Amino acid sequence: MEDKLNQVLDNILGFLLLEGSYELEEKEESFLVSIDTKDAGRLIGARGESLDSLQLLVNQIMGRLTGTEGFKRVVLDVSGWKKNKEEELVESAKQWGKQVLETGKELELEPQSAWQRRIVHMVISEMDGLSSESAGEGRDRHIVIKPGNQKTNKPTQSEQKDSENSENQQA
User: Fold this and answer.
1) Can you list the positions of beta strands (E) in 7-129?
2) Bridge partners of 130?
3) What is the DSSP secondary-structure string of 74-108?
4) Which of 14, 17, 87, 144 has the maximal Cβ count within 10 Å?
5) pLDDT tens, 146-169?
């Protein structure tokens, strides 16, 4: 699968006329592809939408090339953007959670992609006295953090939907 993935990435990045390089890291259930290019902004796009779309495309191509057996999800990162964004989201989610605990008032966040909402849901689920749910549809889908203890190992319906959407974006 690694050879096929290299071929797909070479073709797509060449087609996009991007200069740069990439590294593959094979994990148990996925491949992490770290792309380094001077055109990072163009490849990432607004709010990471271009990167999400490219990742979806790569996963669909790989799914067709490999079939269900041996398929591993491909996660793309450009110039460390996604890794940095994940770290920022974890810290922001903790701050948002503290704010809700201090004020006792719900907090509606700006719209986020499914993988970003999933990270926020996971952080909030670990905090006592808080719950979170997704609201809205499509590009307007966002998280509402609420006071009230909902610490449970069972995901809420909105967390389940975000997790499925995140997997679909990455699969």
Assistant:
1) 20-26, 30-37, 73-78, 107-108
2) 147
3) EEEEETTHHHHHHHHHHHHHHHHHHHHHHH---EE
4) 144
5) 998 654 444 555 555 555 555 555
